């Protein structure tokens, strides 16, 4: 039997459906007395040490100003338990509501930044803006993770991965090929 599937032309604007693996995160921010949360799928690891993460934060989002001006945020990792809240946060504006209050989430003080952690999330990564050189052109922020908090269990949290069009894929089966990796590649 052939290993090759038949393929059709595919709209390039929809390639994101295959290359946007997630996991979906919630980005919390603060400016003065104001705090906010947005849902984010467009992020990428850029370096291990320092721990650099690149993200697209649209200029139309209320979070954009809070994060650009404070130079800080927290990247929080929700699990499937928070699916409807993740969608709600991504479809409302911090200009209209306090999303912590509205969605019943707990804001906990962070260690290295003023933006709050979201207690209900599996992990919280405190970030400082490391480079805003691509913000004006692409809304692309480069953050350094300066402190990380991760729940001890479950070891493999069930995370959400956005496919676009309101559909999520859920992380699942874990497989290991550790033995085939070159030393130092882990
Ligand atoms: C699943 C999902 C993923 C999203 N990913 C991003 C993203 O990567 N970057 C972005 O700028 N907006 C993204 N959004 C949209 C923002 O979360 C949305 O505009 C939100 O209302 C912004 O909140 P704010 O205006 O309070 O900052 C996403 C929304 C959803 C539902």
UniProtKB/TrEMBL annotation:
UniProt KW Repeat keyword: no
Domain Flavin reductase like per the UniProt entry, residue ranges: 17-169
Annotated keywords: Flavoprotein
Source organism, top-level taxon: Bacteria
Pfam families referenced in this protein's UniProt entry, alphabetically: Flavin_Reduct
Cofactor(s), by name: FMN
Keyword Disulfide bond carried by entry: no
MF (Gene Ontology): FMN binding; oxidoreductase activity, acting on the CH-NH group of donors, NAD or NADP as acceptor
InterPro entries: Flavin_Rdtase-like_dom, Flavoredoxin, Split_barrel_FMN-bd
Family under the similarity heading: Belongs to the flavoredoxin family.
PANTHER family: FLAVOREDOXIN, FLAVOREDOXIN-RELATED-RELATED
Protein name as it appears in the record: Flavin reductase (DIM6/NTAB) family NADH-FMN oxidoreductase RutF
């Amino acid at each position: 039997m052939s290993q090759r599937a038949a393929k059709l032309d595919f709209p390039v604007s929809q390639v994101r459906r295959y290359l946007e693996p997630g996991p979906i995160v919630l980005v919390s921010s603060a400016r003065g007395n104001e705090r906010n949360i947005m849902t984010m799928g467009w992020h990428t690891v850029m370096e291990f040490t320092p721990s650099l993460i690149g993200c697209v934060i649209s200029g139309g989002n209320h979070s954009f100003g809070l994060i650009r001006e404070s130079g800080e945020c927290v990247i929080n990792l929700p699990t499937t338990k928070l699916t409807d809240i993740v969608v709600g946060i991504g479809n409302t504006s911090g200009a209209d509501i306090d999303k912590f209050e509205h969605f019943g989430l707990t804001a906990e003080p962070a260690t290295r930044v003023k933006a709050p952690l979201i207690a209900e999330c599996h992990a919280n990564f405190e970030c400082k803006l490391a480079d805003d050189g691509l913000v004006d052109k692409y809304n692309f922020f480069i953050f350094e993770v300066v402190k990380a908090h991760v729940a001890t269990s479950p070891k493999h949290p069930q995370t959400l991965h956005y496919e676009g069009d309101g559909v999520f894929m859920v992380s699942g089966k874990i497989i290991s090929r550790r033995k085939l990796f070159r030393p130092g590649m882990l």
